Amino acid sequence: MLGRGLKRKLSDYEENMAGLSSAFDSSRNLPYPLKRQLVLNMCLTKLQTYKMLVEPNLHRSVLIANTVRQIQEEMRQESNQQPINVFFFITPSSHSYTGVESSGISFFLPSGISQQESNCCDLRSVEDPIENSLLIVSDDDMSSAISSILKDLDFVEDISPPTCLVPTGDDQPKFPENTGLKLEDDRQDLKGTECVFGSFEISNSTSYLKDLAIDDIFEDIDTSMYDSDFCCPPLMPPRPPSLATEEPLKTFPSCNSSSASNIQICRTDLSELDHIMEILVGS
Amino acid sequence: FLAGFGNLMQDVLWCFSQVKGTIDIGVTEADIISTVEFNHTGELLATGDKGGRVVIFQREQESKNQPHRRGEYNVYSTFQSHEPEFDYLKSLEIEEKINKIRWLPQQNAAYFLLSTNDKTVKLWKVSERDKRPEGYNLKDEDGRLRDPSMITMLRVPVLRPMDLMVEATPRRVFANAHTYHINSISVNSDYETYMSADDLRINLWNFEITNQSFNIVDIKPANMEELTEVITAAEFHPHHCNTFVYSSSKGTIRLCDMRTSALCDRHAKFFEEPEDPSNRSFFSEIISSISDVKFSHSGRYIMTRDYLTVKVWDLNMENRPIETYQVHDYLRSKLCSLYENDCIFDKFECVWNGSDSVIMTGSYNNFFRMFDRNTKRDVTLEASRENSKPRAILKPRKVCVGGKRRKDEISVDSLDFSKKILHTAWHPSENIIAVAATNNLYIFQDKVN
Lengths: 283, 449
Prior knowledge:
The complex is a heterodimer of chains A (about 280) and B (about 450). With about 280 residues, chain A is mainly α. Chain A contains 13 helices and no strands. The longest helix of chain A is centred in the C-terminal third of the chain and has 37 residues, at about 175-210. Chain B has helices spanning about 285-290, 335-340, and strands at about 15-20, 35-40, 45-50, 55-60, 75-80, 85, 90-95, 100-105, 110-115, 120-135, 160-175, 185, 195, 200-205, 215-220, 230-235, 245-250, 255, 270, 290-295, 300-305, 310-315, 325, 350, 360, 365-370, 380, 400, 410, 425, 430-435, 440-445. In chain B, the strands form nine sheets. Chain B has a four-stranded antiparallel sheet, with no helix packed on it. Chain B has a four-stranded antiparallel sheet with strand order 2-3-4-5, with no helix packed on it. In chain B, strands 8-9-10-11 form a four-stranded antiparallel sheet, with no helix packed on it.
């Protein structure tokens, strides 16, 4: 459902990434900050791709997030030693790295581009295509990006609380603690349930849009600014997202038995939760 | 002489024995083998694939007429263990891929195994039927009911031999206990319980009870934003039913004793090697993630596999492994490329031989490596159709790192990273190994004189 133009950019992007990473591996002369920036960009791109997936891989996400945090910490320590502004940077000129830039825009809110462009003059003057393609991202943006990804993982994954802890005789005194923890889980699950149903609708509408031959209709209109949402799924979807999101739209009334009981469990949990909250609050 | 325990590397020549699977150029994803496991006697060899199927091979009896063909493995049973599921609540497909198979020790004529996908563990009973009852009174041979008024005499049904039929029936389904993806299952030495581990939790099950499980490890933080570590593998001690280990994505192993508390969040032992500062890179943490952990048969050691090495740990020494073996150190200078194409996340398994003297693990280009712990010799072999003549001896392979490439060597840049050997198994008492290469299963044996 993507235009041919976009696909060309994607394969360019992939080739460029492969070129960059082998440059990283083979070149000893690449300065350390540049290597670090390259790795950081790869990490962030991967995390963003995972975010678009219906079910991101928790193991990989955690490893990549840790790598980002590690780089972030290193950069923070460096900036503590010297007063350097870590700022947001976008190359205004378009070349083969457009794909990276678009995804950069959708991921991090560009704030006051024109001001910051004037601060970027050190790197802008460098002609090296590798340096020109790199995005320098602010600390806060990175932290919030990691947090939001991990939070999303929780909402997507842990909807139903784990089936019962069967307390043995020894555990009796511990039981009240477990209840407390379970409430926390439930509260998060509550938010999570809402989130799932919320994103459920949103993803349905985007899949509907993908099905239309948009590019045929709007061929002459430049939609590169808005293409970020469409550019990532083809990179590495484990299965077509449209399949996963269209199916429930058609067949929601006839869930399979396990998920039907999940829904029931959620509903009873919610009403029990209300009841417990009332007791605790003493109203 | 029968090759058995404690053979030194130089005495063992590995030969091709069999290969299972198609030779098609285009591989159907469902046929990709995702787990391989011998049973406790080595008589049966089970494989699971991405399509949710289990295929069990049985070793044929050795015949005196062909002593050089030591028991070949032939298909014994094939069944669909897991089906793809769709969770409508979360809009998620649950893969039918079999992540692990573990055998139970044989206690009667039937065989039992556990198979698991990402969410559900199943206990399967595999049994033979070679007799059937004949001579019912109320129904005829086709099963049609007889008119009772037509029956003039009664007879006792007798069991008559029939063609051997192997049936697999699901005896237990252990579902709805894992929010995250199951990566390991392990049968306890008490043969009454087993554990299943996902990214954040480990549950203990009783084989007889499917609607309850004990949660024995939970590393999920109250705030998911604080999550920095996941569980990657877990296994019970082979003899002590109260002891198990689990490995993490940070390269650590925790040994837990279930007698100390019901929730084993506090470990009894913590195994971690201090980082080597000279090898530090951006990818240090990622390559330290442990992909497999296995107790030795003796129960005295554990072996762990991370991206570049295999390590052997003594249970009595927590601060560093006693042995470290480089599987493919030439990849250390390629980590960024391997990160970019996600190969750095490949999860290789590792296995012990029956006497704990040799360890084996897979690599890329359909290479697999064996390390002799006593002689410190190692060998690289290849699972390929070219080396697949009957009883052909496998030639050791070598990867050349830089400089001049010798005739038989292959350069690092020529390695095929799509051909990865993640799953291998070693017969419990003999030098027979099973190596899964994508959709093909290779069986190699040592040369019999």
